[in-house]
Amino acid sequence: MWRSSSSSSHGASTTQDQATQQPAILDPAGVQGAAPSSPATRRPLGIAVLDCSNRSSATSAGTSPGTGTIYSMSNEHLVLSLFSGAGGFSHGFSRAGLKPLFGAEINKDACQSYELNIGSPCHQVDLGTIEPRLFKEMAGGKRPFVIIGGPPCQGFSTAGPRNAKDPRNQLIFNYLATVEELDPQWFIFENVEGLLTSGGGQDLTRLVREFIRLGYSIRLQKVNLAAYGVPQTRKRVLIIGNRVGINFDFPPESFSYDSGKAKKASSLPLAPTLDEALAGLGQAATEKDAVAGYIGREPVNSYDAAMREGNHIRGVTQHFQAPTVADRMQLELLKPGQTMKDLPPELWHESFRRRANRRVSDGTPTEKRGGAPSGLKRLRGSLQALTITGAASREFIHPRENRPLTIRECARIQSFPDRYQWVGNSASVIQQIGNAVPPLAASTLAQHLLRVEGSFGSDLAPLGATGKPGLLGFVLTEASGMSPALKTTEALLSGLHQGSFAFNE
């Protein structure tokens, strides 16, 4: 099994006191750790038994395509969430009827946000050191239907300088170790596009090779989540694997998109724009704890209706902006689609000035990204937003108002419903939102798995006469050209796709 000694994880706030992020200490023989139950209480971490009312008790059996092996399929749909963050992935799965048994996350605030909204335990643990067998015990020894999770991305992200020695990079193999121990029928792994070229493509290739070694047939694809209806062009790497012996595809795309930087023209309808995503939200409050009322009693559009669903107050919280906005001059000068590099150099932030000519490891000038974290960008209301990150509430400017986006606006762009609440200060909350898997995309994936499961033994293609696991296919880019770094990764993955590798490498 793969192991790591890293203690950093997905969703960790850079501003939170380190002492508040210490993981629970687990005693394999009993209970010594604790996980937050609510902001006021904590629950011992032990063998969890949860309400499984969302699960069906029906079972089915059939022949595993391509193998001739009889398998038994339980429709209990046991779901486990790792690197859970504030629960974006889990919320989307819950909306599809696949509520995770529990979550696991190192960050205290994110763990409490998870429990507050998902309604199942989130165990505050260091996934770099915990023994995967403890998760197996917590699941009652049952085989999960699916394990979902997005290990930390900071070491791979191209939003800043990538660090090949970042200990968080190894957490992808802790995810792998848990999959090995619990042997789920399916897994879904999510990460940033920088993983594609990390370590000269070796990190990704090693991960894929090990999944295959464990008996999984997988598909890998860089997906722009706007294609699933998320109102931002958010590029992410998804790896989906199964051990039930079928050849499957990714969910079909439902939308085209255009953020000004990422564009896909097709006959499909345009994904919700920024204006559509924010429609219905009233004027931002000037007091942090105030409720900002909606515009009108009825939703403005279908996206606004979806965001309002289940919200029992006539407005939203965490939609506030300080009455005095820094950088007023810069904000007034920026036009839609412009970034700080479009301003006179004398108005550049010092942090932007230092970063302007720095190149990240893939060779792309940071200035092409607008700078980070203080590279101001005014978004276009008529297009999809750029990717929401932990810096979004500092660097993304409202398309018409001279202010940054509010926390609630960032949450809507991430497809979190208006009733969703977070624990922590503003810096912690925006980090939780930026690190999350958009619930709308997660729900699309969950519904797709259920459709695939319902097709077992029918129209799904078998793996072949041998029934051996392997890389079924991969998509690294839809662009007409490919960078040298990405070509290297393509060559490595092509070797796996063709079966030209050894498990003992």
What does this entry look like structurally?
With 505 residues, this protein is of the alpha/beta class. The two termini are 15 Å apart. The chain has a 6-stranded mixed β-sheet with strand order 5-8-9-11-10-20. A two-stranded antiparallel sheet has the order 1-2. The N terminus and C terminus are likely disordered. Helix 5 packs parallel to helix 14. The chain folds into 2 domains: 241 residues, Vaccinia Virus protein VP39 (Rossmann fold), CATH 3.40.50; 162 residues, DNA Methylase, subunit A, domain 2 (DNA Methylase, Chain A, domain 2, Alpha-Beta Complex), CATH 3.90.120.10.
Q: Could you outline the blueprint of secondary structure elements for this entry?
A:
Elements: E1 34-38, E2 41-44, E3 59-64, E4 69-74, E5 79-82, H1 88-95, E6 103-105, H2 108-118, E7 122-124, H3 132-138, E8 146-149, H4 171-182, E9 186-192, H5 202-213, E10 217-224, E11 235-242, E12 246-247, E13 257-258, E14 263-264, H6 274-278, E15 292-293, H7 302-308, E16 315-316, H8 328-333, H9 350-355, E17 377-378, H10 392-395, E18 396-397, H11 407-413, H12 426-435, H13 439-453, E19 461-462, E20 471-475, H14 484-497
Parallel strand pairs: 5-8, 6-7, 8-9, 10-20, 17-18
Antiparallel strand pairs: 1-2, 3-4, 9-11, 10-11, 12-19, 13-14, 15-16
